[in-house]
Amino acid sequence: MAFHSEDDKSEDYLFKIVLIGDSAVGKSNLLARFARDEFYPNSKSTIGVEFQTQKMDINGKEIKAQIWDTAGQERFRAVTSAYYRGAVGALLVYDISRQQTFQSIGRWLNELHTHSDMNVVTILVGNKSDLKGIREVPTSEGKALAEAQGLFFMETSALDSSNVAAAFETVVKEIYNILSRKVMSSQELNKQDPASLSNGKKVVIPSEEQGESKKGGCCST
Amino acid sequence: MVRKKVPEWLNSTMWSAHPPPSSFNDDDGLLLHSPATKMKEEEESESISFASRLNFALPVPSPSPRQRNNDSNIISGVVPSGEDFSRQAHLSAELSKKMINMKELRSLALQSLPDSTGIRSTVWKLLLGYLPPERSLWSSELKQKRSQYKHYKDELLTSPSEITWRLVRSKGFDNYELKTGSRCMLSRSRITDEDHPLSLRKASIWNTYFQDTETIEQIDKDVKRTHPDIPFFSAGSSFARSNQESMKNILLVFAKLNQGIRYSHAEADAFFCFVELLKTSTVKQLDNSVVGIRSAITRLSQLVRKHDEELWRHLEITTKVNPQFYAFRWITLLLTQEFSFFDSLHIWDPLLSDPEGPLESLLGICCAMLVLVRKRLIAGDFTSNMKLLQHYPTTNISHLLSYTARLLSIFKAQICFF
After folding, report:
1. B363 and B296 in contact (C-beta within 8 Å)?
2. From start to end residue, where is composition biased (Polar residues) (chain B) (predicted)?
3. Domain that holds residue A117
4. How much is the pTM?
5. Which runs of consecutive H residues, i.e. helices, occur in B76-230?
6. Which chain A residue is nearest to residue B222, measuring alpha carbons?
7. Chain A: nearest CA to B387, how far in angstroms?
8. Percentages (nearest 5) of helix, strand, coil residues in chain A
9. Is residue A132 part of a domain?
């Protein structure tokens, strides 16, 4: 059952996704690898937020991911709340070679839930998996935390590219699936009301634009 | 810990007190006999200012090879125009006066300073108030501040083991090891009396040292990530390493003197210039309470609205581009990340020329930056506008600055600026 017009191929969906986690865990490099297949060994610290869009193909549908790469430094914490608004997905990143960045995950989760919808699709990402020799966080620990918190989990390396695209795709696919189910079930409900919802218009999960409706996310449409 | 005000120590008279005039000397790397400054190597290499190394463009008697390399990296491609030459002459004349006319100097800096003359390092020191307008006081002033900084470094950056050894020596145990004979006969009681790494005492220098580790790590990370593309900061050469070391020292001394602000992004001369810069207005802005940065962004938004209502409406209402998404970085980093490093120097000239601090000029420049790309912004949607403002296009800086000057004079005429 299609809920968008077949001829409207471009930008059927727009999902806002945030990258969060301690400073220097590799958030910007995950994005650089994913969006441009680039890697910078000594990249500049992100100040405030950096914004990037990336088109993705999920089940033949073109999806535009609007990715917000945030500053990890504690000192910018007070101004980050604006960046979370309207997010429907999140990559929560730590560095497998620094235990301390894993310890911060709880704080980041709180931060995320305070400023955005509880149903944000979140993946826990243990980055720098190439640094096997100096690993401080075992894979099992990351997995256990993700299970306890109901998050997806993956270990990635922005340096050698492993799992980078997969991590982003996991989030986007899940958002898409949730959205598809929601739209379908609301279509069932509104069968006798043809004017509702999907009259061939594209479905957009807005980012900042929907600031007025706090619930925003895909899971509350 | 949050501090909203300029901390006490920043206001200490030490920063501004003029020492008694002392004998005149011209070894300070300044334009004491402009324009042909002598830049003699001093016994203490760190007394050559960090800032003047950046502007090492004057004829130097015998520069070392690494300095020469650095020169060519920095000034290559900069060909002074005729206008630059006349401005340079004007500046040199101003700087050779017994008493510098600060008003004149500020208005000269407003249009940005010429490169390739080594003028900037002197003018910035004056603009920041690190050097007094009386030229005869310069050398004594520098001497005093440099020894003050050396004192800070000694006091704050010396490792605990070094301190312990100094203590031991000062107590007359110069021949400590010899007196105690062979190493295996070290007296236990004597050592436990002193401070040591396992000491539980709050006042233990080792305890402080361990607490500082976090700050040191943060500074280390930041310094490594400072302009990784510019050889001056990170070429892996010994020159770059010593520059990074100087930056680390400056930031660490600042952080330790000012625990309230906590360390945030940023030798002797550079340190005090840095302090002066933070004194003006940025302290508030980088404060964790973020009262400063928020209000600065709001003021920028108001400026744009007053000057160009249509642009403001399209940006903030129609396309919902929250000014925080781009202006946070513009303002906190004083535009250094939006333009190339060398363009940033030119942008800083007018910023530093305002005796009230850089904020007014900065907001003027930000407003001008928006207006200069208004056509594209008005035609753009949320995504394209975000991309445009987060990656501001290459711009003719002198055009930007002259446009800013015009804007600021309009604002002042309308008395709408404050």
Report:
1. yes
2. 65-75
3. 11-181
4. 0.72
5. 82-95, 102-110, 119-127, 138-157, 160-170, 176-179, 188-193, 205-224
6. A45
7. 7
8. 35, 20, 40
9. yes
Nearest to A24 among B221, B265, B322 (CB): B221
Enter the DSSP assignment of B53.
Answer: H
How far apart CA B109 and CA B68 sit, in angstroms, is 27
Residue type, B339: F
**Whole-complex ipTM:** 0.79
Question: Residue A139: which CATH number?
Answer: 3.40.50.300
Closest of B250, B260, B230, B298 to residue B49, by C-alpha: B250
Within a domain: A46: yes
Q: What is the pLDDT along chain B (418 residues), one digit of tens a residue?
A: 434 444 444 444 444 434 434 333 434 445 544 333 333 333 333 333 433 433 333 333 333 433 333 333 333 334 556 676 788 888 888 998 999 999 999 988 888 888 866 788 889 999 988 899 999 999 999 999 888 888 888 888 777 777 777 777 776 655 544 444 455 555 555 545 556 666 666 667 667 777 777 788 888 888 887 887 788 887 678 888 888 888 888 888 888 787 655 555 437 777 777 777 776 655 444 444 445 788 889 999 999 999 999 999 999 999 999 999 999 999 988 898 999 988 999 999 998 888 777 888 999 999 999 999 999 999 999 999 999 999 999 999 999 999 999 998 888 887 655 4
Burial of A44 (0-12, 13-18, 19+ CB in 10 A): middle
Q: Are strands A89-95 and A121-127 parallel, antiparallel or unpaired?
A: parallel
Rg of chain B, C-alpha, whole Å: 25
In a domain, residue A59? The reply is yes
Residue A33 lies in a domain: yes
Quick check: A208 and B265 CB within 8 A? no
CA distance A44 to chain B (A): 5
